[in-house]
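Attaching the record inline, Q. Sequence:
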Amino acid sequence: MNAATATTEGFWGHSPEVPLDLADLTDAQAAGIVARLHDRTTGAFADAAARTGYCSHPIRLQGTSTTIDAATGEVLSQFSSTDAPLGTLYRACGNRRESVCPACSRVYARDTFEMIRAGLLGGKTVPDAVADNPLVFATLTAPSFGHVHGTGGKHGGGRCRPHRTGVCPHGRPRSCTAQHSDADPLVGGPLCEACYDWHSAVVWQWHAPELWRRFTIGLRRQVADRLGVPEPALRDVASVQFAKVAEYQLRGLVHFHALIRLDGPDGPGSSAPLDGEVLAQVAKDAARSVVVTAPPVDGGDVPRVLRFGKQLDVRCVRSGVPDNDDGTDDLRPEQVAGYLAKYSTKSTGTDAGDSRPHHQRLVRTCRWLAERARTACRGLAGPDPEDDDGCLCGQCADSPYRLLTKWAHMLGFRGHFSSKSRRYSIPLGRLRRARARFQKLKADADRDGTPMDTADLENRLLADDEDTTLVIGHWAYAGTGWTNPGDKALADAAAARAREYAQWRAARR
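Structure, as predicted:
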């Protein structure tokens, strides 16, 4: 087969003429698709699915909305859910986790990539000169709470933990010579569940957002100290900006991956007073100095001093020095942006399709600690056990652990998976508004049969809101997910085909 034939076959393999992959349909899904064919609603479903981006679990809404000219009070248009395909308004769920909704997580990852890339290289309202500013890539890890199974790494020769000897106080061996794959449920789990400090692991996870916040404060203080200026005066000489994502490890605890950029006093693109090598050392010093003292869960518990793990990785991506702007490591800015976008959609691993025993143990520990906090409070006050608001002890509101149950499915992590400093780049919300504007412009062009005006399109899409219309809506939640099992199968298959096509296009670039 020559290259031209392979390219052609690759294109037609992802073209609209090729059927979707529906080889593994259940009986219920097949019956649902047949029912759509019988009642002639396949076209309406296709329209509804396309409007959600082929979401796996769309939100169903019933109601109406009215668009009014805010200046004149004139009613410009009205919309009812009965006018939508299938008689219900379907909206994408927007879930960031690939294991929950592949279609929505792909949109989230794409937005995250564009947000991070703009802060690296400029564009989307960020000046191109930002590509010359010092930049480092930092990974802040969780500490160890006990030895866990692994895949061996480069020092283990593919075996888990072959170099340790003896047994633990509970009679379990301290070594493991097995060769685990990433898919092995044991990977990330403790060698001895009784030795593992489950409570401290959950408490660390709960306070991880505070560790990150204090790291950003410490980073700015360290930069000010290097420049010899008081911290309040730092804004007059430099600006520290960052984009961060949280990634779950197989052991169930998060890592923070961050791009840290140093700007001058005039914002993105202005000349920075330190180079990337110094910025990397400053970030290391700041990470090592962060400490959070976590209060005890109840009277039978103890305070804990929390820090980041010893495995700290800070690499210079761009030094910001002329003729030496590649940093010290072989990391390309777009490569790093892709890493962070991928990390932002990873799951906790608690999903039904990929459940690990130690993740479930962390879930149970979250619930147990939350119950301990509530029980300690009820013992002091004695009101209705199910009504925290009715408690008179004065400690419920101060307990940081009473809401752990609500975050048990996230293994105790309650922070943002993707965040950035104010002036790092364009906000994700602005990118979403730009996408909505583009979809409206495209729909208008298709309806009128006229080509879309692409002149200065990006600036028009990203412009500040200047709408003079007011939308008044009355909407009620009608449920989540497709009502027909065949609908979900078709939506998932269409989303998979879109991903395959995007990967094929990316491989050709």
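Residues 198-227 form the longest helix (30 residues). Residues 1-12, 379-395 have pLDDT under 50 and may be disordered.

More tomorrow.
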